[in-house]
Structure prediction request, 224 residues.
Amino acid sequence: MQPYFMPYIGYWQLMKAVDTYVIFDYVNYIKRGWVNRNNILVGGQKHLFSISLKDASQNKHFNEIMIADDFQKFLKTIRFNYQKAPYFDSVMQLLEQIVSCSDKTLSVFLMNSFQEVLNYLEIQTKLILSSSVDKDNSLKGSDKILDICKRLGATTYYNAIGGQELYDKDKFQVEGIELYFVETPIVEYPQLGKEFIPYLSLIDVLMNNSIEDVNRILDNYRLI
Prediction:
């Protein structure tokens, strides 16, 4: 999967469900996508935050783009809006640690953020950058995915629910690999707002739930 900054729970469900998670960094960056932005609660309403990048272009790979943000505005927004959340102190410390990563290469920075969150949640999934895998870079689409799966010795491949439009189960099965899609239901949990708003950044989930409860939420998915 392509990396994103503190994405919604479906992304983390996928990451927790597997033993090895490959971060697609040797693919083109998607402009105006969700790579560097997501939603949190501000004043009880859904609010889009974004982090700034340097010379971001769809003609560049993730590992060719740099983080330009100093995160001061981001951290200030989080502090102001989540200071009354039950797990504010521990999650704020986690976020400060994430944004202080010294390597500002987009792919490495995001991979480090994943690892920090996995460590916090005590999840053992192994993370790999696709650029570190010896593979055939001329391949496209599902052929590229299958090549990486084979080189890593995979027998089962999980993808996000949106992948149903891109990948064919029969094609994977012919190659000896079972393909499943992770479907994320709406899982309500305590929020600071009056009305529950689903599918926000994991930041909201972490701020309002214990490590045990977050893991229960991440385990609440369906394989299709």
Remarks:
- The longest helix spans residues 106-121.
- The beta strands are 20-23, 37-42, 45-50, 53-54, 66-67, 126-129, 156-160, 178-183, 222-223.
